[in-house]
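Subject: Purine nucleoside phosphorylase structure
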Amino acid sequence: MIKFITETTEYLQSKGFENPEIGIILGTGLGKLLEEVEILHEVSYNHIPNFPTATVEFHKGKLIYGIIEGKKAVIMQGRFHVYEGYTLQDVTYPVRIMEKLGIKTLLVSNASGAINLNFKKGELMLITDHINLQGSSPLAFKGVEFLGERFTDMSEPYDTIINSKFESIAKEHGITLHKGVYASVVGPQLETKAEYRMLKIIGADAVGMSTVPEIIVANHLGLKAAAVSVLTDECDPDNLQPVDITEIIEMAGKAEPQMITLFKKLIKQL
């Protein structure tokens, strides 16, 4: 993997990806953040050596290098998921590349379902901790110790200083920003009523199918990491309705301006 990482990093450096400070993974609810970026260079995932091969969903997937709020950033437009058939090493490979390019901070967004019924769809949740239910670890491979500490500490996987800044920004701008625990499952199917009940019992406030692998690897590499979820549906097992994907996307779109405000104001302070 070290050889692959070196090849990929050198290719991107040759394309002008020089000394970024921040890495951003654009999940659902942050696509329009790119409108706030002075884009200097962009490369399709399919053209990057050793990058996961893009599926149909990610034919437009791009790695973007630009300036946002005066900071150099590498931005993933489109992420990879285990449910698409990727390994956890594939899913997290871009994080390793961003770290090699020079980032010190990783910011992640995603869409999730609200297990905590005090949270409402269209609101945001700051992730303060997580539960990994994806069945394995992105660090579970031979030779991982050559890339970082094998037994990575996860006592504070989400940077408390960055989270405090997010909370202050939300308060200043009148944005509802809950705090909670995110459970990451494989998917792609949604959860059953019994699964939602189980998730509540074990302490999850929201559930999704991403983010946790990337956060684990960010900690493995010594990066500061933070993540925010758009709550797109309410997972009440006693009143569960069939999922309407159109409504979920619409809900993410409604929350997008607030998410962009949070990320822009935070980046300005970093």
